[in-house]
Batch of 4 targets.
Target 1
Amino acid sequence: MTRRRPARRALYHVVLGAHLRKLRERQGVSIARIAEHFDVSQALLIKIENGRRGPSPASLAMYCEVLGLPMLDLLADVAELHREMVDPFDPLLRTALTPDMRALDGLALYAGIPRRHMPQALHRRSRTASGGRHTPTTSPRNP
């Protein structure tokens, strides 16, 4: 039987879960310790790390607290990993984004917000990086 490729949203959860597991293991923190500390089931954490369940904001906050990292930094890193996997030619991967824009991109990807609803500045950076034409958002004034 051929396995179907996971949908984009499901793939995001797989990338996010794998990244959380890698960070947790790198710091030597066990799933049992997180589960006990926050009074959640180990099964829930295993599902999150295996990408079978998307983490809630509360679950992400638990991981961030235990791992000692800001949630927006985590989401920005995961967004970059996800974009590399989905489309290695995505212009955003070759664009030097400010930390605020990286955080916004990561948060939007976590929330499932389509790119068309992102700020125009992100679109302009994306087009510039891909060699596309930049069209001004306002028309020039006539003298």
Note: The chain has seven helices and no strands.
Target 2
Amino acid sequence: MAALRIATLLCPPLVPLPPPPEEQVAVLAPRPGEFSWTLLPRNGQRPLYLPARMLLEASSQGGGCDIWSEIAVLETEDARFVAVVRHLLEARGLTAFRHAALCDGPEAVRDFFESHDPVAVMPVEALTGPLPERAVAEEFLAAAGRESGFQRARWRALLGAVFGAPRHEPRPWAASGGLQ
């Protein structure tokens, strides 16, 4: 299993920053320890745009894999949390999956990550490579099943490195490792 890169930043609260000027349209990344206006893209939904600060980020990148996942936890000025997940697929010529969810507490953040199925949001081509022009052969489906299990195992390893053992029984997709 690839080595995991984990960084945690826990900082005392700082004075909230004012909203940026209207003419500023750039995507702002949160600076460690400071509240800053942050734009978080979400596939299929409007992005979140709110003042937040980074508490934790972790990645499963490494080991020569060309698909990896990144997670982050941000704190908002009103003491809520944002769970952020990205699945990077660009090395396979595909667009990354990005999602962020507002959570009321740390348990809700953990529930969000534990209930997320990385394979469900990936296009089939991310698991198999380019699709054949005609009927899909059994070998092609078997390869997709193997890659699904591998990606789910990497997701569980990432969450385990950050949060420890899962609190609930594994989801049916997590136990089987195959396509559902």
Note: Helices lie at 106-115, 124-128, 138-163, 172-176.
Target 3
Amino acid sequence: MTLSSTGFDRVRTLLRRRPSVAWRRFLAISLALLAVLLNFWPDVGHPAVVASRDLPAGVSLSSADVRLVTLAAPVSGSFPGVDAVVGRTLNGAARSGVPLTDFDLAGAPDDLVSVAVRVPDQGLAGVVRMGDRVDVVSPSAEVLAENASVRETRGQVVVLTLPRLNANRVAAMSLDHALAVTLR
């Protein structure tokens, strides 16, 4: 090395040195403070529509009946805005402060209808749960409907919500044969 060192030589010399004890302590304290800060960082929450008061079944919801709250964890099937539930009817009674979900409200969109399907055995109906997505298959292995939503299960009957286009065909086939459902 010559007596007049260049900038590159200075950087290379600094990189070869071991970090000082003070630098390592500073880095450790900074990381610990960052971990503590992130631990107490507030969660932004998840918006959900809740009943603003106790509501009986069959009530047509107005903006005075519901309010928007922020929950710590998401609720499956909840609505992110009040506009999505205003004008819809409650299937059952709702308690004040309880999130409203798609199963609490009557009136699926116009292009969707519910159909009861008889499955071959009760064990299969026990595996399928409300909210699952299934395909409906005929005994001849023909797919009658895809991505149908399970609304309810009772014994060997599974109630599915599916497009109106497929509903008549599935209902007619279900009269003569037990149909299979495949989980998605």
Note: The helical segments are 7-16, 21-39, 122-127, 164-176.
Target 4
Amino acid sequence: MFVLPKTNRLILVATLAIGVFLSGCSGDEERAESPKLGQCETLLGDENVEAAVKTTGGSDVEVGGTPQADVLAERLVREAKQWEEPDLQHTSYTGCRVDAFEGDGIGGTVDASVRWSALSLGMMDSPKNSRTWRQVNESVYVETESGPGRSRLIAKCAVPGAIDSQPSDLPLQFDVTGVTLGTELRWELLSAFARSVVEEMDCEKPPVIPSALPEAE
């Protein structure tokens, strides 16, 4: 049996150890192959996600959240059926969180979340809310700048099995945040996200989420 000299064995072990170390440090490849990235592209639109990552200046991404519309819808429906007035404590569900890295730091973050809103549809006509919210149609309201880099959409969705007041007093609320995103791109992400989840909700009368950004009046 052939046996390597001791010196050669040490060199071989050191070489293998360095190879393992370098492969473990190669975060670019691991992040790029994350299955959640593909799921986020399905949930928010593949071109939208690609464009959002480009605005951050980073090419390497890490993805978190629950980027599955059916899972998000199931959780929301379960919560709506258990809701009773005047409960305003609602769970926020992160659909996708994409952290784009530039060098050793985060170049930007895109976050898409959904929850049942603490705002009722009746509150949309108040002087305070009417200054920032636009009514798109009978069941959808939009706030394009609800905070730094954030756009928000509220949609009426009557969940079968929930109490009678739920459709108007407990609407869906979708948020997309990303300080590197422009208003148009935030809307593309937001509207795609809302449509994906609503399609899985079985609303008695599904809200119509427009593709184009509603014009300011």
Note: Helices lie at 6-25, 27-32, 35-44, 46-56, 69-82, 127-130, 166-169, 183-198.
